[in-house]
Amino acid sequence: MTEALYTPAGDGTTYRSGPLTVGPWNPGLQHGGPPSALLIREFERLPGAWPFSIVRQTVEIMGPVPVADVTVESRVARSGRSVEMVEAELSAGGRVALRARAWRIRQSELELPPDATPHVAPPPMPAEDTPLPDTWTAPLITALQMRFVSGAWREPGPATVWARLTIPLVEGEDPSPLQRLLVLADSGNGISNALPPSRFVFINPELTVHLTRQPEGEWMCLDASTIADPKGFGLASSKLYDERGLVGLGAQSLYLGPRDLKANPT
Predict the structure, then answer these.
(1) Residue-range domains of the chain with CATH
(2) How far is CA 129 from CA 15, 52, 104, 146, in A?
(3) Which residue of 13, 22, 145, 166 is 20 to 30 Å from 128, comparing CA positions?
(4) How far apart are CA 83 and CA 17, in angstroms?
(5) Which backbone phi and psi does 179 adopt, to 5 degrees?
(6) Angle CA(69)–CA(71)–CA(73) in degrees, nearest 5?
């Protein structure tokens, strides 16, 4: 059986988290990408009054997400004739770990002038996959087929990488292109780290993704850079692509601290 990031528990709202959801900071905690993708899946499935496009999602990380059963609940917070806001919460162990909001806009067919929809070509995709270094410890990365255009593992500075999720987000389902994009979007601070990860943590308490169009296909590209401030915060910003071109922009506010921090900052 093909391994998945999550397995439905049978009640429609609870999912068992698989071992490949684990991130780089703690072997018992999830990377932010899989639960963010699980929330965008919820927004894709939540019924609306009309056909819609999701144009923005913000995930607020209220605390660490354990590798355990998680429950997802959603609702329409504000509905209208053309736009609506939807909200969702992901809980684990009786505690809300993530809160998300998204804007959904009613789909239409418009004839727009060419200069209103400029094409931004994607970075070239390398022919070969990038080997994982022996020092990399995030199991989620092993669920991704990755090809670096620029930058490299464990090297500080901006980086651009193509990636394809090789297993289902939820068992028995093909991930949607938007779900694939959200799995990757939370890695902007990781691939473009401005500080040595052996000495510092750079953890994002939130992730915001704005879309220029709906993504297509399986391969997604993350072109990211990070700016750090000595007062203990930073910003990781990214351009997001599919094989056709630009699909959106991502941003992560960052908490910066020493690597040996004992207490969880969130």
Answers:
(1) 6-107+121-258 (2.40.160.210)
(2) 31, 35, 35, 5
(3) 22
(4) 32
(5) -65, -40
(6) 170
